[in-house]
Amino acid sequence: MKMAGNTVLITGGGSGIGLAFAERFLEKGNSVIIVGRREEKLQEAKEKFPELHTKVCDLSKQEERVSLFEWVTSHFPDVNVLVNNAGIQQRVNVLKATESWDYYSKEIHINVEGLIHLSLLFIPYFLTRTDASIINISSGLAIRPGAWVPIYSATKSAVHSFTTSLRLQLENTHISVVEVFPPAVNTDLGGAGLHTFGAPLDSFADSIFERFEKGDLEIGYEDSEKRLHASREENEEGMKKAWEGFLKGNPDF
Ligand SMILES: NC(=O)c1ccc[n+]([C@@H]2O[C@H](COP(=O)([O-])OP(=O)(O)OC[C@H]3O[C@@H](n4cnc5c(N)ncnc54)[C@H](OP(=O)(O)O)[C@@H]3O)[C@@H](O)[C@H]2O)c1
């Protein structure tokens, strides 16, 4: 994908990985629109990077996704890059799953339904542009599930599957389809403090941008890159070890 002169829409761009990507896209000479539910996070981001454009939107809701598409394409008709980054993560013990279905289905609505629907909305528009990209953020857990986040891991496998089909269906168009598989990265995903053990955000984002520049289409980092090339047995073994480690560190789970 070309790295400058794009108009980039980043979902969940007010914090974490989305904001780190927004900063780098701006530095390289792109226009960037960030979207999220919390206006104060978007405002904070805009104070830091005044060139950013912001829009409050709850992407778990179908009507808000359609309104976002209409708003973006009318205010930023040059839009040609969609970064499907917004996501949530919930720890779920299936032996104590006493919440209502609304609680559990949130992860599916935002992580999967939001991403697929936005992709379908933007593809026909992107076909009218000369150059376009869809960048989907899945996870190393798409390849090797984290048993403590079973619904989240399933949503990320779904993102990986959908992205793979999308790439094949769009191979004879000028829309490139990129998937980023972050490993654990130090952001507030799942709640503040839960990912402090993860990779530093800036090193992760710098490495991903180097891979964008190279034109790579499936991009991991450190542990998640290894998972992409591991055997099924290695991933199953790794999953069991991680689950045992999680239970040791979280005996009340
Ligand atoms: N950090 C990691 O260890 C890690 C590892 C693998 C994959 N990832 C993936 O990376 C992506 C970014 O996560 P992050 O680590 O940067 O965490 P984060 O800082 O919590 O970012 C998630 C972003 O998504 C937005 N979002 C959540 N629900 C939304 C909704 N319904 N509508 C619109 N925006 C919504 C959030 O903004 P609002 O709350 O304001 O809406 C937030 O800005 C996610 O897809 C995550 O699954 C992260």
From TrEMBL:
Taken from the UniProt entry, a GO cellular component term is:
membrane
- The EC number(s) this enzyme carries: 1.1.1.47
Q: Which UniProt keywords apply?
A: Oxidoreductase
One Pfam family named in its UniProt record: adh_short
Source taxonomy lineage? Bacteria, Bacillati, Bacillota, Bacilli, Bacillales
Q: Which family does it belong to?
A: Belongs to the short-chain dehydrogenases/reductases (SDR) family.
Taxonomically, the superkingdom here is Bacteria
Identify this protein by name: glucose 1-dehydrogenase [NAD(P)(+)]
Q: What Gene Ontology terms describe what this protein does at the molecular function level? A: glucose 1-dehydrogenase [NAD(P)+] activity
Q: Which SMART domains match?
A: PKS_KR
PROSITE patterns assigned:
ADH_SHORT
